[in-house]
Amino acid sequence: MTGSRPNPCRIMIREIFIVRHPVSVCVPVNHKVTLSVRAEGTGILNYQWFTDDEKEVCDGTQADLTVTARKTQLYVCRVNDHFCNCVFSDWVKVKMLDIDKSGLPVHWQGEPHIAVNPKPQTVRQGTKLTLRCLAFGIPTPYYQWYRNGQPLLDMTGDTLQIDRATAEHGGSYLCSISNVLEERWTEPVDVDIVQTDQLPPAAPTATDKVALLIGNLNYSNHPGLMAPIMDVHELANLLQQLGFRVVSLLDLTREEMLAAIEKFIQLLDRGVYGLFYYAGHGYECAGRNYLVAIDAPQPYQPENCVCVQRVMHSMQQRRTALSVILLDTCRKWYNQDCIPSAITPLKPSGNTVYGYATCEDAEAFEVQDGGKSTGIFTKYLNKHILQCEKVTHVLEKVSEDLGRDPLVTGRQAVEIKHTLKEPRSLADPVRTTGHTKELHLRDACWRQANELPRKKRLTFHCGVEVEVSFSALFSNVLVAFASVKTKGLKTQDCTVTLSSKPAMQDIFSGPGRSEDLDSLLFKSSDNPDCTLRLCALQRLKESLVIKVDLHYTHTDSKLRQTESQHVDIGKPLVASCKLYRRRNHAATDKKHEGASAQSMGNISSSKPLLHQTVAGPCRPFTRKAECAAKVAVTRSNEPEENDENELRDFALRH
Asked: What are the coiled-coil residue ranges (predicted)?
């Protein structure tokens, strides 16, 4: 009897056994993690990893799969042999948490690391109670919640939620987080369940904080000022301590002021705190305040200035949570016989604050204080601005201090106008929950105006090494530093000089500038061999090139020699924002087409300032520009200011 030939697939068949399944993990974003599977079978085993969307993982053909956690993803591994056997591992989750990972050990082994602790809560009775705790871990940690020391059944996730809280849900809560490596505990937090009438109001928060600071000092047709330099610089530093994104600018023409304000308005949005500060010449007409640009001619005309109420109008249109305008400028009345046209009012939105350095038809003064020039209003504003108090209370303290200053008694008094309906403070915390997309857009735009060129290290043919670094005094004023780091074998008496192309003059070098500018400069670098201030960057239309000239004496020939190198730093700081290309300004350009163009960074050196007087220790200097005698003009029934055009200039157009 002849038997049939045996089928090779039916002999020597053994099943495949997975002896170790992969485990789920919870890791920070971009963390590398290895998933492992171990199996036993006959012959060579093949592996293929898959994701939950049934796609094969590239390079996922080994028992170990290393992935970078960029999103939460499910994985499974198929193991097969050459005998038509196949088996799948357990599904595992690589959970990615895009949260703060500071404190995570450099050589983290996977033990539970608590990234988010639960927070104390005061909850109305009958409303939802939510406590959250998040931890990294390999394997994924196990959670167990406790109330008053007792474990809560079924409360084993990272979020504890009770839909309708009652009095019995009050108490002390904590969470145990554990995996096979270790167990960690959160700090206990108290949960208070109160009646509706017992609940304290929620503390105000901002979704972001943005500030624009402008200081005008070098006027073409009006007296120059001293204090805006230090006032803007010091206030910018203080606002940054309060969490504001700050853009600070000096010496702007009207077009540049409007363009900067336009960019500022774009950064505002629902829930944002917006602050606009101006130091320089100004005046008041028919209840409106006007800021004088450095190119404003004599006499004052609204079309040559910027209307403050327009700025506030635009801020309110962005539905900010707090809009603050602080003006260290005069409010003397001019052109009271002009016919102002109406600003279209918005619905009452509240939470707007005006802080005026002085009252109506009065002047604001700047003085020399301890060797530096300062506006008296800003001097006391900087003294109090960091306090965690309602913004109007801070301004009241400024008013009280200024009122006691003997230099301006009877001549200057702070005025505060506001529609605050909530106790909001400039020190309120920022909470971005639900606003992260808008926050990232604002962050990119703000960084564009504050990005510094990178440090450069240059090696010359003679062997000398020179380091060129940069610092921002303001968003449109860059300082370049050059330092000799290494001397050549045959060089001595090395010196460095810096220049730029296009050439940019130093607006701080005019007559009467105070010595404190040097202190500003040298705080930014340790005793450099050479410095170069690059001003009015808002007018830069091409890449800025720094020329570094190295001068030295050759030890053999004893001759003085020079070598040069160039560093292209692009369009640094606010230059990248192209403020000279403000949208919808053709009509304004036509109006001013007869005006002479000013050279970059050279506001006033072409002719002397009209009134550049250094104030003595007890001699306040007014911020009221001296206009020429009033010129008789023929008026029609049209207002001299085209409000509709100006409103269009300010309005956001996207």
From this structure: none
List the alpha helices (DSSP H) in 358-390. 376-384
631 lies in a domain?
no
Instruction: Please say whether the dihedral angle defined by the alpha carbons of residues 569, 570, 573 and 574, taken in this order, is positive or negative.
Output: positive
Domain's final residue, options 142, 164, 194: 194
**Which residues are within 8 A (CB) of 313 and not within 5 positions of it... i.e. 6 or more apart?**
343, 344, 346, 647, 650
In a domain, residue 214? The reply is yes
Residues 186 and 242 grouped into a single domain: no
10 contact partners, CB below 8 Å, separation of at least 6: none
**Range(s) of the domain holding residue 443:** 208-447
Number of domains in the chain: 4
Q: How many other β-carbons are positioned within 10 Å of the β-carbon of residue 501?
A: 13
Mean pLDDT of 392-402: 95
Full-model pTM: 0.64
**pLDDT of 73 higher than 80:** yes
* pLDDT of 450 over the 90 cut: no
Nearest Cα residue to 260 out of 543, 600, 646, 581: 581
- In the listed set 43, 66, 97, which residue is the last one of a domain according to the structure? 97
Mean pLDDT of 309-324: 92
Structure-model confidence comparison of residues 594 and 187, the more confident one: 187
Catalytic machinery residues: 281, 330
Mind listing the pLDDT tens digit for each residue in 371-394? 678 899 999 999 999 999 999 999
Pairing of strands 305-307, 365-369: unpaired
Let me know whether 438 and 493 are in one domain: no
Asked whether residue 247 carries a pLDDT value surpassing 50, the answer given is yes
- How far apart, in Å, do the first and last CA atoms of the chain sit? 92
Which residue in 414, 421, 412, 332 sits closest to 381, CA to CA?
Answer: 414
Are 302 and 431 in the same domain?
yes
What value does the mean pLDDT take over residues 100-107? 83
Pairing state between β 272-279 and 322-328: parallel
What are the phi and psi torsion angles at 369 (to 5°)?
-130, 105
436 lies in the same domain as 467: no
DSSP string, 536-547: -GGG--S--EEE
